[in-house]
Amino acid sequence: MLSDYSERLDGGRHCSMIVRRGVSLKLTDLSGGSNVGMMIYNAENTTERLNIPDSLKCQHTFKITQGNCLYTDMGRILCSVIEDSAGWHDATSGTCSKTHLDTKPWAKETFQESRNDFLRNGQDSFLVELGKYGMSAKDLVANMNWFSRVDADSEGHLALAAPYPSGTSVTLRFEMDAIVLMHTCPHPFNDSLTYPKTEVSLHLALSDAVAEDDACRTNCAENGRGFTNTELYYFGR
After folding, report:
1. Which of 16, 19, 20, 215 sits 20 to 30 Å CA-CA off 203?
2. Are 35 and 143 a contacting pair, CB within 8 Å?
């Protein structure tokens, strides 16, 4: 029986997995400048899924970092951020699409120039993974962008901040059995001259039980209620 599991994901790739309650997922940016798009669904009932607006609103934040939780649209907590060396992850900018990529300098490369390497976009990557679980475009939701920081200027214009260095990591502890979709396609605000070739590692391990004084649980009153809602969902199992 596995006690932990690791794999690597190159830039411009996608994957999905079921992550069980009580398991942690550690993402590490091995190259620096990576972006990991993520969507999450209740593994038992995929009509319950990640709700980014509620996650930000109830925690009174524009960013996601250590101590924050990601909520479902039913007021339950999908996962908690228990470790984070970045300090800021984008939850507002969505994912790149083919339309986005067509405006970038690298879109002008021929198939031969890119050595037959298909330049994937985040939206299509999510759609491929959704299809594996009987879902489709109607099930797309607002996504997280791990390792990407977006800042606003005095006029309210958003821009991608300087990339985090290699070795930056974030650890999510899952509070519900969840279908997790990920891609390593560019952030929609990425204006680099070449398609980003990055590398990210994924590491699954068992987490400790959630204590009453857990930092995510006590971060705000709303989180306390969210943990209670989640525990009621599993009560008696």
Report:
1. 215
2. no
pLDDT at 115 over 70: no
Q: Element (H or E) spanning 159, and its range?
A: strand 158-160
- The Cα 207–Cα 174 span in angstroms is 9
Question: 């007021």: which residue's tokens?
Answer: 75
| Three state DSSP letters for 216-232 | CCCCCHHHHHHHHHHHH
Q: 11: closest CA among 171, 139, 129, 182? A: 182
Q: pLDDT for 57-76, tens place per residue?
A: 999 999 999 999 999 999 99
For 3-51, the DSSP string reads SEEEEEEETT-EEEEEE-TTEEEEEEESSSS--EEEEEEESS-TTSBB-
* Full residue range of the structural domain in which residue 214 is found: 4-233
Number of domains within the chain: 1
Q: Dmax of the chain from CA atoms?
A: 58
Q: Are 61 and 216 in contact (CB under 8 A)?
A: no
Q: Would you state the structure tokens that stand for residue 178, as one six-digit string?
A: 């969840």
- Residue-wise pLDDT for 12-42, tens only, equals 999 999 999 999 999 999 999 999 999 999 9
Buried b (16+ CB within 10 A) or exposed e, 42-55: bbeeeebbbbbebb
Confidence at residue 109, expressed as pLDDT on a 0 to 100 scale: 60
